[in-house]
Amino acid sequence: MAIFFATFTKPTMARKEPDGQIADTGNPYSIGVFNYAHQGKKMAKGITKRSEDYSQWYLDVIAQAKLADHAPVRGCMVIRPNGYAIWERMQAELDRMFKESGHVNAYFPLFIPESYLKKEAEHVEGFAPECAMVTHGGGKKLEEPLVVRPTSETVVWSMYKDWIQSYRDLPLLINQWANVVRWEMRTRLFLRTMEFLWQEGHTAHATAEEAQEETLRILGIYKRFAEEFMAMPVLTGVKTEKERFAGAINTYAIEAMMQDKRALQAGTSHNLGQNFAKAFEVMFQSESGSREYVWATSWGVSTRLIGGLIMSHSDDNGLVVPPKLAPLQVVVVPIWKSDDEKSAVMQKIDGLTASWKDKFRYKIDDRDNYRPGWKFNEWEKQGVPIRIEMGPKDLESGEVVLVRRDTGEKERISQDRITEETETRLTAMQQSLFDTALALRENNTFEVDDYDELKERLNGEGGFFRVHWNGKRDSEDRLQAETKATIRVMNPDEPEEAGKCIVTGEPSKRRVVVAKAY
Amino acid sequence: MAIFFATFTKPTMARKEPDGQIADTGNPYSIGVFNYAHQGKKMAKGITKRSEDYSQWYLDVIAQAKLADHAPVRGCMVIRPNGYAIWERMQAELDRMFKESGHVNAYFPLFIPESYLKKEAEHVEGFAPECAMVTHGGGKKLEEPLVVRPTSETVVWSMYKDWIQSYRDLPLLINQWANVVRWEMRTRLFLRTMEFLWQEGHTAHATAEEAQEETLRILGIYKRFAEEFMAMPVLTGVKTEKERFAGAINTYAIEAMMQDKRALQAGTSHNLGQNFAKAFEVMFQSESGSREYVWATSWGVSTRLIGGLIMSHSDDNGLVVPPKLAPLQVVVVPIWKSDDEKSAVMQKIDGLTASWKDKFRYKIDDRDNYRPGWKFNEWEKQGVPIRIEMGPKDLESGEVVLVRRDTGEKERISQDRITEETETRLTAMQQSLFDTALALRENNTFEVDDYDELKERLNGEGGFFRVHWNGKRDSEDRLQAETKATIRVMNPDEPEEAGKCIVTGEPSKRRVVVAKAY
Predict the structure, then answer these.
(1) Which of A425, A454, A476 is the last residue of a domain?
(2) Are residues B234 and B337 both part of a single domain?
(3) What is the pLDDT of residues B35-84, one digit of tens each?
(4) Mean confidence (pLDDT) of chain A
(5) Domains in chain A: how many in total?
(6) Is the pLDDT of residue B173 over 60?
(7) Do A31 and B73 lie within an 8 Å CB cutoff?
(8) What CATH number corresponds to the domain at position A155?
(9) Average of per-residue pLDDT across B85-113
(10) Residue B257 in contact with residue B446, Cβ under 8 Å?
(11) A454 and A305 share one domain
């Protein structure tokens, strides 16, 4: 076992919150101190069972797959190579989708003058409490403190003022990949960290209609990415005013159900109206010669997606990654006892995989200093979709053993068909992960009309609850206070349905989705 | 002219320094205030001639090609889409080279506890004076201030302590793409900014030899990238102790000559010895069972490379980008007077470029609201390597006009050979840019043995001067104080040559390269 745990020495830094959620320990300013938390009962793999402690399971999966680690500064995260490789795959696909829809990348600065943040009233109210402030630079106190960007609308629109003069400059469709900082008190690897990586799109348009179209176009891209690549089905819809982005006139979101039936907001697309254009005096000359304020959108997804990916598909044996996003899709493990056997097996494997370079992301694990069983375990924990085993006996039989990570199914397949069969399994696994996640959501989405029943079920088996709501802030506040659940999304395209608000009994025209959320 | 300057409205924020260099204006803490500096005598294109004012020319090229802009916070930069697209091309090639040599990417946090920076004595001495400090977060004062990373050795090695236990964990070859902050007083777009983007590699090795090999392997990658992709010839060599990275035992660098004959340090690769392993107590168990400190390297290139690219190849008409890094390699400008003509010309162009999607990065500029002459000018300023013009008369002649950006050469070529000819021109231009830059360096590198002559020529025509130096810090300091030039690199592979130190007359075994530098 010593080898097994060789690189897993820093214990996860976590404690349980009263609501069963997990948060990092330590006071906000403690630095570099790790508390050895109770690790719970773990399998031989070092992973707690989901059924025993879902939160600890999540942290164990991350640790065992070497996805991330806690940084010396509380709430910050180190994304380890295995985790970052998933992020790179996500970035590549999203970046392609953004570019195909006409967006270009740029880079805006990390530091924003405090006065800029204050120019949009709602925006500063929403973000000021969670800002990190730079007060000293080069050994001197600054006259005006600088905000470490929590999001970049204000600095972007201060530049757009110079870049946009005429309708010819519109639409302006810019995205950036960057780090942002929000001073969070309760953090959780990937899901909520003080610093995180994300993309933030900032677009400028000549009309309200175009801005709304863009907002929904991006929502569509996010949904397609989540479902086609992450195999994570999502609901789309609009957020309530309470949950809206600070400074937006409407926020749309994609929401997924995790395996513990909690909701995860996985991406948001905001229609900002003319709020930021007015705050930063960004006007353009229209084709007819009039001077008008510009219309805006902003939208983002972050490394939180990796948390969503983990909680959508992984199991008690560790990480499961959908083939389309897996940094490594296939691992081939040769088995041998003597050097002669190794060379015969390796020769065969090299031949069989000769055409794979442009087909799969694969690795042949022929390391001498680890045994096959250890390797199986290691790649299983890391979520590699397909494992192929081949030993001296397989040379005679003309077969190999193929194991699918999600089902654990072990098959003997003909060496002649190894490439086709691998391809088929990868496609099947991608679809199967999506189907399983969709079935979970469908089997755990309920229409409920009684408030007591809602409270009981939210605190019992959980799920997504479609309930009537009167659209008022005070009943939303009450719902949240009394159930610890929130309204996740409203679907504006759904036909109206007469009903009674589950909280107040007042008339309601529409159901909303209520769930406990990350 | 109104259209022409439509998107060039923010004046460059620059003043001349006494030594002829340029720096941003404003006191260190002024924010969002732009001084309208004297713009000098410009061509119709809005670009000052190099011969009139090289520094202003540099800023004009950046402004006219829309590469970058000054941010509201002094010394920070906004990288505009045209500039960022070049950075993306650079990243793609470098990232490929790093991965091909076994490196993986990860992400370490932006914030470092102040106490960590202090663990390596030389390191803190070098970096503390230029740090930005976060003292408040979430509305509260922090117990320990956080440093916004100026470089990440300290946080990386604090993690490596947990990740490295055994020789099996080595070598650890990690790179990250990130932003860093150094509180610079005299900034210049791309060349020296308070925040910049870069990659920083941090590797850990079992032996001193392996660390030295890695240091030189990366130096080789940097040289290959600079020469093959940027078409920018570079000298490689080791830095003097004075110029060494704070905490390194040796720093290697690539140095290029800009068109004004100044040197630009374009990338550095450091052998860190065991300094950081000792500071952070990072030991490993060797194959023989002993416990030893780990050996380290770190290395980086930054958005400064874009400044080097601009100053290597651009001319009085604007930006020139080598084809291999050009976001857009070919622009096709159709010419027409009537709608019928447009449709005939466009039909022909679509046919001729049908096979181009996987061959070139190209664009057909068929915008109605700009005239061809305006388009020629615009793409010229943006540095697109090849422009192809085609009008109704060319339909009859079966030819097109092809213009190469670097030479301005205008040729009529047969439409049948448009793809091959374009390909040939792109290859030729890449080579020609390199040859021209190499010739500039060779024609302006001199061996000088008289100190007065050196001073005179450094302040006259400039160049790289190969001079004898006794290897002592005090003569290096005197040289710098008296000439404003610095020792750029020493080439340890050069055969020894007996001579006399140009400053002191003391014996010297080797020449070093002295130049004024950015």
Answers:
(1) A425
(2) no
(3) 333 344 565 579 999 999 999 999 999 999 999 999 999 999 999 999 99
(4) 92
(5) 3
(6) yes
(7) no
(8) 3.30.930.10
(9) 98
(10) no
(11) no
Residue B75 lies in a domain: no
Contact A110 B165 (CB under 8 A): no
> Is some CB atom of chain A closer than 8 A to the CB atom of B146?
yes
Tell me, yes or no, whether B384 and B404 share the same domain.
Answer: yes
Tell me the two tokens of residue A358: 């442009």
Tokens of A242: 């309470």
CATH number at residue B349: 3.40.50.800
Name the stretches of chain A with pLDDT < 50.
1-40
pLDDT at A156: 98
Alpha carbon of A214: minimum distance to chain B alpha carbons (Å):
19
Q: Please state whether beta strands B445-447 and B464-468 pair in parallel, antiparallel, or not at all (unpaired).
A: parallel
> How far is the alpha carbon of A384 from chain B, nearest alpha carbon, in Å?
17
Q: Region B450-473: what's the mean pLDDT?
A: 97
Question: By residue range, what is the domain housing residue B371?
Answer: 330-441
Residue A261, min C-alpha distance to chain B (Å): 30
Which of 17-76 (A) contact B at CB < 8 A?
28-32, 69, 71-73, 76
Question: For residue A445, with 0-12 CB atoms within 10 Å meaning exposed, 13-18 middle and 19 or more buried, which class applies?
Answer: middle
Residues 6+ apart with CB under 8 A from B205: B170, B171, B211, B214, B294, B295, B296, B297
Q: Give the per-residue pLDDT at B287.
A: 93
CATH number of the domain where residue B455 is located? 3.30.110.30
Report yes or no: B139 at the A interface, CB cutoff 8 Å.
yes
- What are the structure tokens assigned to A117, written together? 């943040």
What integer pLDDT is reported at residue A185 of this predicted model?
87
State how far the Cα of A282 lies from the Cα of A172, in Å rounded to an integer: 13
Judging contacts by C-beta atoms under 8 Å, the chain B residues touching residue A32 are 113, 115-116, 158
Tell whether A131 is covered by a domain: yes
* Mean pLDDT across chain B: 92
Is B110 part of the contact surface with chain A (CB cutoff 8 Å)? Answer: yes
Question: Does residue B270 share a domain with residue B178?
Answer: yes
Check if the beta carbon of residue B500 is closer than 8 Å to that of residue B510: no
Residues B290, B153 share a domain: yes
Nearest-Cα distance to chain A for B438, in Å, is 32
What is the interface size between A and B, counted as CB pairs within 8 Å?
214
User: What are A486's two structure tokens?
Assistant: 């929130």
Tell me: do B198 and B281 sit in the same domain.
Answer: yes
User: Same domain, yes or no, for A469 and A386?
Assistant: no
Q: Which residue of A has its CA nearest to B182?
A: A138
pLDDT tens digit string along B121-137? Answer: 888 888 989 999 999 99
**Mean local confidence (pLDDT), B380-388:** 98
What SS3 class is residue B23? Answer: strand
CB contacts of A77 in chain B (<8 Å) are 109
Cα-based distances in Å from A501 to A33, A466, A506, A511, B429: 48, 11, 5, 9, 70
Please report residues of B whose CB lies closer than 8 A to that of A369.
168
A137 assigned to some structural domain: yes
- Claim: this prediction has a pTM higher than 0.95: no
Distance from CA of B9 to the nearest CA of A (A): 6
Question: What pLDDT, in 10s, does the model give residues A189-230?
Answer: 999 999 999 999 999 999 999 999 999 999 999 999 999 999
pLDDT in tens, A247-266: 999 999 999 999 999 999 99
* Partner A, chain B 365-384, Cβ-Cβ below 8 Å: 369
Among B441, B476, B493, the domain boundary falls at B441
Which pair of structure tokens corresponds to residue A299?
Answer: 């939208």
Nearest to A294 by CA among A393, A170, A188: A170
Does the residue B379 lie in any domain? yes
Q: State residue B121's pLDDT score.
A: 86
Are A511 and A367 within one domain? no
Mean pLDDT for the stretch of residues B498-516: 97
